């Protein structure tokens, strides 16, 4: 396909000895010693590393980019044609106004707007297209002040997730001179509108401190409200729906602790309940009572307890919604007279609303085999209306308001597909694959009706399987570009997520991590067994921790796959977990294990880490996408993996690494630029399936 040769990365000896075991890592040099500076300023990347990454980009462009240009443009046009470009969210009322975001035809970024609550002329509060300029623009959200005269908004200019917070005067439409640099995204306003709170990042890019900014003062004078001493815990800030308390959360993936500050009186924070290993909790407040979602006392799938604000400790926790095995409570909202919980049972989500005055409950669910359901929080506490979203692989998203007093359900918005969409042309199935240990792994399928189940169809099998994240069975305008070409689109709801409860998560992390990989392989084998596809016709896709899954299954069962697509893949697991200076490493130890202190963890991670297990054998075609300023999966992980694959594998199948030199973990900014990246992966899948 090209006259240029694939780049060959230099090998430079680099040994590391742990627990009496020595490894040589010849591609360690791709990790820039000044990586912290690179995150903030990509131009300081060392020249030899930049040269290699640009050579890989040139190889990608010559071998895949240019030859598929017309196909990618066609896919891009199809997906874009399914998006209503001039669109808006459903306005959310707050006091005298209703706030919303909307997009204009041709614009990459949203407008933040408001109207008078009962109708009237719209005011544009922020036009992100004007603020974005020509380079990368990561919008970190916007929060209006309680007095409705100001708005704090955040932007990241290079994909590193270092945000700058700006304060806009909504009367003049201009930003004040003061700003907050290198913060996490977002700000939480105090009720007096004279101050806000934000999370500060440390030198290793970890959110570790909450500061209070008083309007009119310098960032250097911002008081420290809370500082986390344990590098394994990340810090976040929020507000209860009642706006009575500022919340400060310290958490890793399995343990949490919450501190409160009176939003009216201010003062020092107080702890609700000190952290206990493997115990999580979050909370809302109503009339001096805390409503706490927790897995305390072996409530594996979580329960809801209450406690008085003035005596919030665990000794005073009283069950309100007791633990029920197999019913995972995902989220809780509390408004004036109601508690709303989002939960999953039998693999499907539902919303349950409890009247706190009499205990009566009503349930919102849908009859499809697979669907997605979500709560949409509003600004107001004193309300009897809740908002939720619904979609399925065949059904475009719908937004409903439910009046809790009358029971009336109002459809507020139906996702439009301008180029047309007929749900009756498609079929959604929820099947189960049998894992090697006997567990039933849910698999969601979408395909055109009338598909011959004779194994001839190609399939794209997507998986993630980490951190308890579940992959919703929702509607996607993008995947139709594969399904309409004869693909079966499948999501494997593998262990490591919480698709079947918290146990499903526990059995896919740490010592049980390899269940994630065997579940995914079992899903592929089920597709083959039932005739949905066949061996060598399945393209596997995953990103971030799902990219680690891609590396693992490519090592374990390379012959199964027509191709593998790894998006910002976490593939150098052992080296990353040994490097406690990296942003995510200490908080990740509960998820993967700590190979620094534990020889067992070291050996276990070394046995599956994709980079460490590349072998001299045939691999399927592989596409890898990365971001230079990615603070979550650093650019050198995919770069090292590809370098080792190219030097080791015995086949001549395609191997491409495309590093976005102007973006981070989320890929390109702008809604249309992101579609172009989707078109890359779909074109690769079609090539692997020999459909293009």
In terms of topology, how is this protein built?
Blueprint: E1 15-18, E2 21-24, H1 35-40, H2 47-65, H3 69-81, E3 87-88, E4 92-94, E5 97-103, E6 111-116, E7 123-127, H4 128-132, E8 138-144, E9 150-156, E10 163-169, E11 174-183, E12 188-189, E13 195-201, E14 207-214, E15 223-227, E16 234-239, E17 245-251, E18 256-262, E19 266-271, E20 281-286, E21 289-294, E22 303-308, E23 318-321, E24 327-334, E25 338-345, E26 348-355, E27 361-364, E28 372-375, E29 385-391, E30 398-403, E31 409-414, E32 426-434, E33 440-448, E34 459-462, H5 480-483, E35 488-492, H6 502-506, H7 514-529, E36 538-543, H8 545-556, E37 561-567, H9 573-577, H10 585-592, H11 599-608, E38 622-627, H12 636-648, E39 655-660, H13 671-688
Parallel strand pairs: 34-35, 34-36, 36-37, 37-38, 38-39
Antiparallel strand pairs: 1-2, 3-5, 4-5, 5-6, 6-7, 8-9, 9-10, 10-11, 12-13, 13-14, 14-15, 16-17, 17-18, 18-19, 20-21, 21-22, 22-23, 24-25, 25-26, 26-27, 28-29, 29-30, 30-31, 32-33, 33-35
Question: Could you give a short description of this structure?
Answer:
The longest helix is centred in the N-terminal third of the chain and has 19 residues, at 47-65. The model has no long low-confidence stretch (mean pLDDT 96).
């Amino acid at each position: 396909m090209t006259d240029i040769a694939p780049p060959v990365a230099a090998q430079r000896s680099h040994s590391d000895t742990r627990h009496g075991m020595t490894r040589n890592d010849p591609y360690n040099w791709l990790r820039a010693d000044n990586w912290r500076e690179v995150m903030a300023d990509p131009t300081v990347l060392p020249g030899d590393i930049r040269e290699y990454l640009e050579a890989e980009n040139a190889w990608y462009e010559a071998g895949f980019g240019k030859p598929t240009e017309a196909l990618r443009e066609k896919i891009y046009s199809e997906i874009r044609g399914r998006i209503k470009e001039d669109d808006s969210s459903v306005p959310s009322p707050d006091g005298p106004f209703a706030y919303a975001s909307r997009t204009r035809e041709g614009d990459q970024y949203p407008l933040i707007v408001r109207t008078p609550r009962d109708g009237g002329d719209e005011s544009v509060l922020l036009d992100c297209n004007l603020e974005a300029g020509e380079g990368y623009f990561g919008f970190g959200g916007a929060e209006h002040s309680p007095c409705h005269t100001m708005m704090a908004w955040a932007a990241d200019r290079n994909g590193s997730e270092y945000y700058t917070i700006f304060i806009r005067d909504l009367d003049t439409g201009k930003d004040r001179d003061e700003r907050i640099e290198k913060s996490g995204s977002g700000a939480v306003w105090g009720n007096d509108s004279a101050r806000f709170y934000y999370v500060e990042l440390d030198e290793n890019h970890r959110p570790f401190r909450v500061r209070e900014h008083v309007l009119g003062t310098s960032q250097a004078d911002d008081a420290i409200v809370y500082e986390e001493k344990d590098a394994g815990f990340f810090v976040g800030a929020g507000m209860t729906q009642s706006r009575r308390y500022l919340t400060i959360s310290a958490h890793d993936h399995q343990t949490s602790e919450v501190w409160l500050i009176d939003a009216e009186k201010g003062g020092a924070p107080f702890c609700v309940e000190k952290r206990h290993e493997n115990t999580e909790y979050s909370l809302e407040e109503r009339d001096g009572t805390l409503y706490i979602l927790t897995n305390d006392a072996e409530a594996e799938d979580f329960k809801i307890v209450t406690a008085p604000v003035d005596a919030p400790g665990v000794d005073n926790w009283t069950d309100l919604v007791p633990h029920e095995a197999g019913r995972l409570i995902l989220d809780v909202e509390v408004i004036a007279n109601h508690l709303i919980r989002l939960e999953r049972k039998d693999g499907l989500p539902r919303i349950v609303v409890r009247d706190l005055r009499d205990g009566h409950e009503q349930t919102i669910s849908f009859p499809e085999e697979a669907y997605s359901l979500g709560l949409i929080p509003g600004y107001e506490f004193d309300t009897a209306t809740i908002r939720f979203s619904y979609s399925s692989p065949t059904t475009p998203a719908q937004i409903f308001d439910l009046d809790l007093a009358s029971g009336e359900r109002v459809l507020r918005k139906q996702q439009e597909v301008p180029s047309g969409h007929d749900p009756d042309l498609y079929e959604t199935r929820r099947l189960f694959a049998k894992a090697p240990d006997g567990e039933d792994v849910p698999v969601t399928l979408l395909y055109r009706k009338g598909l011959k189940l004779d194994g001839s169809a190609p399939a794209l099998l997507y998986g993630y399987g980490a951190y308890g994240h579940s992959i919703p069975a929702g509607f996607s305008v993008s995947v139709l570009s594969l399904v309409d070409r004869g693909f079966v689109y499948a999501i494997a709801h593998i262990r490591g997520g919480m698709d079947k409860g918290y146990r499903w998560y526990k059995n896919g992390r740490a010592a049980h991590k390899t269940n994630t990989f065997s579940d995914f392989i079992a899903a592929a084998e089920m597709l083959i067994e039932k005739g949905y596809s066949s061996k060598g016709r399945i393209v596997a896709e995953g990103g971030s921790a799902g990219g680690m899954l891609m590396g693992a299954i490519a090592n374990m069962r390379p012959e199964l796959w027509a191709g593998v697509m790894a998006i910002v893949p976490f593939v150098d697991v052992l080296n990353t977990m040994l490097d406690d200076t990296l942003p995510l490493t200490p908080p990740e130890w509960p998820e993967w294990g700590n190979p620094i202190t534990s020889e067992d963890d070291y050996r276990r991670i070394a046995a599956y880490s994709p980079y460490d297990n590349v072998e001299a054998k045939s691999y399927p075609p592989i596409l890898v996408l990365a971001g230079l300023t990615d603070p979550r999966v650093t650019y050198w992980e995919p770069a090292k993996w590809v370098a080792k694959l190219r030097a080791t594998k015995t086949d001549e199948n395609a191997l491409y690494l495309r590093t976005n030199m102007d973006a981070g973990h989320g890929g390109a900014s702008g809604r249309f630029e992101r579609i172009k990246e989707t078109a890359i992966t779909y074109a690769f899948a079609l090539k692997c399936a020999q459909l293009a």
